[in-house]
Amino acid sequence: MVRIIMHGCNGHMGQVITGIVKEDKDAEIVAGIDLVDNRDNGYPVFKSLKDCDVEADVVIDFASAKAEDALIDACLEKKLPVVVCTTGLSEEQLAKIREASREVAVLKSANMSLGVNTLLKLLQDAAKVLAPAGFDMEIVEKHHKHKLDAPSGTAIAMADSINEAMGNEYTYTYDRSGRRQERDPKEIGISAVRGGNIVGEHEVIFAGLDEVIEFKHTAYSKAVFAKGAVSAAKFLKGKGPGYYDMSDVIEANA
Ligand SMILES: NC(=O)C1=CN([C@@H]2O[C@H](COP(=O)(O)OP(=O)(O)OC[C@H]3O[C@@H](n4cnc5c(N)ncnc54)[C@H](OP(=O)(O)O)[C@@H]3O)[C@@H](O)[C@H]2O)C=CC1
Ligand SMILES: O=C(O)C1=N[C@H](C(=O)O)C[C@H](O)C1
């Protein structure tokens, strides 16, 4: 049984996870953290992790970049492992999370779905063949109108995965408006679309001479992320300091 503190419990993802954990005999949400306590969750809700005095094994974080620094400080103070799913984090926050993993177990992933984490590896294989053959690489992501950050954490993770496979030679271009120059062969273009209730779509386009290959992942419900986060929490329970990602969870469950 993993005892979870749900950071951002009253948001969209926090509520989906609350529903999923209710049906899971191996997991329990013992407390939630959110700015307002306006739901009938069946567990106590605190305004910050610092104020929370409930014993737990792991924190799952789907909240806001604005809340990340205080969350990490409190995890360090309480020696609590944390699954970081919040996106839109600054370089400083990413460095702080890395540093924290020297003292507590941290699992960070911009996308908790099995599909995207499988795709991250396939993209590396494709890029190694196609980029040297002159294919240009573009990523287009689409999300719901409520999403605050752009581009998505997943789009950046996909670009990073490709770039790592290519020796980190590529730069990222987020906006071409106002430009009057040809595309740089060593760039990865990243474009964001926002509207309606699109759960999450990511397309990676390899565009060559007279042929195009496209990889596409579509999330049809937030449950794919929620299930991944609960698996990650089970994986992290009892782990000592270290930095993990979803590939570690997938490998452990294979
Ligand atoms: N890694 C992954 O697979 C996924 C990551 N995400 C990411 O997770 C995050 C949350 O997404 P989502 O649930 O859709 O967003 P929501 O805005 O619906 O939920 C976030 C919740 O966190 C609350 N919150 C804001 N500030 C704080 C704070 N200081 N302390 C505690 N709680 C706070 C919000 O309160 P209020 O509404 O009052 O501001 C809200 O209830 C986003 O960054 C999103 O990109 C989302 C889906 C999948
Ligand atoms: O905010 C969302 O909804 C999502 N955010 C994550 C991201 O930024 O990549 C993952 C998923 O696509 C849904």
TrEMBL record:
It is found in: Cytoplasm. The keyword Amino-acid biosynthesis applies. It catalyses: (S)-2,3,4,5-tetrahydrodipicolinate + NAD(+) + H2O = (2S,4S)-4-hydroxy-2,3,4,5-tetrahydrodipicolinate + NADH + H(+); (S)-2,3,4,5-tetrahydrodipicolinate + NADP(+) + H2O = (2S,4S)-4-hydroxy-2,3,4,5-tetrahydrodipicolinate + NADPH + H(+). NADP(+) binds at residue 39. Its EC number is 1.17.1.8. Pathway: Amino-acid biosynthesis; L-lysine biosynthesis via DAP pathway; (S)-tetrahydrodipicolinate from L-aspartate: step 4/4. NAD(+) binds at residues 8-13, 37, 85-87, 109-112. Residues 2-112 form the Dihydrodipicolinate reductase N-terminal domain. The active site is at 143 (proton donor/acceptor), 147 (proton donor). Pfam families: DapB_C, DapB_N. Homotetramer. Catalyzes the conversion of 4-hydroxy-tetrahydrodipicolinate (HTPA) to tetrahydrodipicolinate. This is 4-hydroxy-tetrahydrodipicolinate reductase. It comes from Fusicatenibacter faecihominis. The lineage of its organism: Bacteria, Bacillati, Bacillota, Clostridia, Lachnospirales. The gene is dapB.
